[in-house]
């Protein structure tokens, strides 16, 4: 029986205690525990409904409060540690993707790309420690184990459940936790239902636009064969933008032999990547549910989500170490530093003439220009057939089964890239004055290069970079596509029975997963000379636009954007004389099979519950690739297998009716990513990188303890304080260094100096810390404090995670665990009453180690601290119609990476503030 009440003027909220729930059903069932009450009479009705096992459903105009109450109900009734982002009263979230929505939860940090939340880190841990599932089914990401959540629109979610404590029914590769996206069903609504959203907005940087829309339609039908529910939904979000950017690559210089050279690094090149972007998130899904009889449900669900990034990038690289070998000063005797305005060499890394790593001049160097047009797309197409059945005299038996097929596609294709380089004559090249003293801006000034008597010096300043000639050296087009196909079969059987003096439930289950990822790359390429025979201009001006710079960063020079249409036309011409040639050196096919089984028991007592069990997984890997040596490609295949055991135990104590104490022991293993298991090297000429697989890399094993205290303060308050510890073995590191080998050199291209990245195991490590959260609304206290009732709409929500970590590197050193931030916190205030909802939210995470780097390349790489301030406002014009305004990235902060120390910036990008508004409806 369901009792429905309407609360239009603002109501207090109460999270009801629901009956004990199975671990795999707790989220869906506990949602019924979120109720809205108007006064003590309604509270009594709630208590009575709770005692009778009934669900009380309230429709109101308090979306923030109702969402938080629904979330607290799930958390409170869970047998393990979870955190929930619930949709508001019309079933929607204000953020465009799953990462952005989950990023407001306790212990959740995000990593951004182009200002858009992309990856999720739980309690500051590495991103590959967090797994993704949709309705409990593990979903493979287009990128592999580093799940990209920006390819999943938040519009498909009714709830986002973050599980921080691992249970035996969860995949063993879950270490820090799991993000489970709960989708909608027609049975979530009493009958015909339609909800939607339509809006648009403005991006401040570059004066660009945003558009968004959502639609959900569902209905239920009584038929002669049972009740059938059908739901379809779709969403679309588009964001046009430009980006301010600079990047500097650092190195030690062997020719620098003066005192201090052992610790000195120089900027070997500095560049601007100037983007014009159109990003889109869209999805469409359908679900068919059938309830033939009471206690039985069968469903078929299909979801397609996509993220696209159409990118035009004008890239200007100032090759400061272009003539590094010209520096021939002996190590002894040490020179006397004498600032000079000329040099016999290029001046690069010459401390003796007054140049320093952060400021100086370099004479007659190359400009490497790249005009790149990309058509990037990541998509997930997941399909699930499943059923849930109860049987037995008192429905004490339960059977659940799932069959899933998922296809994840990672398309990194480049429509066209034109490369231009300066002529060999030194005086036709620029002299560059560089200033890296401000880590927030790499400044360059351009001058003519003068030569006299063997000395080079700066001539007249130049503001237009096109005053320096550059010639087309190559035109390429690339078809880079990775496809992962995943098959899952899962079955769970449970029985309720008296057990050890309590209400018990025993569950056993089995699961089979097969995931095969294949990378296929092909490239079309012609030289500048070939381009000339086709009538393609070999200078830049004819294929450029006389358009003002759309960004705001002070470049120190003016430039012209490349013409996108001309790029497409020129690639079509190139296709008439050249073919797309498969890059066998970049091919790989990696298959992973996991045979899993688990046994789990739960016992409920008056004082709480015990949940424990063990999961066993046997993993078989097979990797196929081509090994390229001396230009010849030879196929190779590598196989290995291993068995892992994952025990866990969760104790929940009801200290009082509104207080819980949780204690858990859990284990997991983060496996190397699919591309990291390939048995070969692959290269990327556009970015001058080489990556290598390591099929012998071992999973990193983790064993953890969590202790948490939770206090659910009526009607809506919540306080949590917890501590956690994880011991890690065989820590996986992304290792970055100079490739240093000539085995990939071909076609006149020297790849020995490319940046090389691979995965490797280090030693042991650990991470431990504390987590706290509080949320409270003023309304319960306004009367006793003698405050006006309108003040009751104010509320606050805050959470913080503090981490300490250490890991042993492959060379025996010790660093912070990769991907971990020492501090992660969110703080937000809101006001909600009389149909008006306002929210201001601030998020921050401190710096974290990104990858190990060789001393020759500057050392280890880090992300600088990241923060964001967002605001949203909504007003319910009627119970079924509201208007909204959202403002994002109000601090307009930049994303920044650095090497060794904070003032050695590697990359800096700024994206601009964003403002959107529109309408929502719900019937």
Describe this entry's structure for a reader.
The structure is a single chain. By secondary structure, this protein is mainly beta. 6% of the residues lie in helices and 58% in strands. The strands form seven sheets. It has a 33-stranded mixed β-sheet that branches. It has a five-stranded mixed β-sheet with strand order 5-10-11-8-9. The protein has a five-stranded antiparallel β-sheet with strand order 17-24-23-22-18, with no helix packed on it. It is globular. β25 (471-499) and β26 (502-527) form a beta hairpin. The two termini are 22 Å apart. Mean pLDDT is 86; it is low at 1-60. The chain contains six helices and 51 strands.
N/C terminus separation: 22 Å
Helix content: under 10%
Rough shape?
Answer: globular
Average the pLDDT over all residues and give the rounded result.
86
Question: How does the SSE layout of this entry go?
Answer:
Elements: E1 2-7, E2 12-15, H1 26-30, E3 34-37, H2 40-51, E4 55-60, H3 63-77, E5 82-86, H4 98-102, E6 108-113, E7 116-122, E8 130-134, E9 137-138, E10 157-163, E11 177-183, E12 193-203, E13 208-223, E14 226-251, E15 266-291, E16 296-319, E17 342-343, E18 359-362, E19 366-391, E20 397-411, E21 414-421, E22 431-438, E23 441-452, E24 455-462, E25 471-499, E26 502-527, H5 528-533, E27 544-545, E28 561-562, H6 564-574, E29 581-582, E30 588-605, E31 608-629, E32 632-656, E33 659-670, E34 681-684, E35 689-692, E36 700-713, E37 717-729, E38 732-738, E39 755-761, E40 765-777, E41 794-808, E42 814-815, E43 823-833, E44 836-845, E45 848-853, E46 861-863, E47 866-878, E48 881-888, E49 895-899, E50 905-910, E51 914-922
Parallel strand pairs: 1-4, 8-11, 35-39, 38-45
Antiparallel strand pairs: 2-3, 5-10, 6-7, 8-9, 10-11, 12-13, 12-51, 13-14, 14-15, 14-50, 15-16, 16-19, 17-24, 18-22, 19-20, 19-21, 20-25, 21-25, 22-23, 23-24, 25-26, 26-29, 26-30, 27-28, 30-31, 31-32, 32-33, 33-36, 34-35, 36-37, 37-40, 38-39, 40-41, 41-42, 41-43, 43-44, 44-47, 45-46, 46-49, 47-48, ...
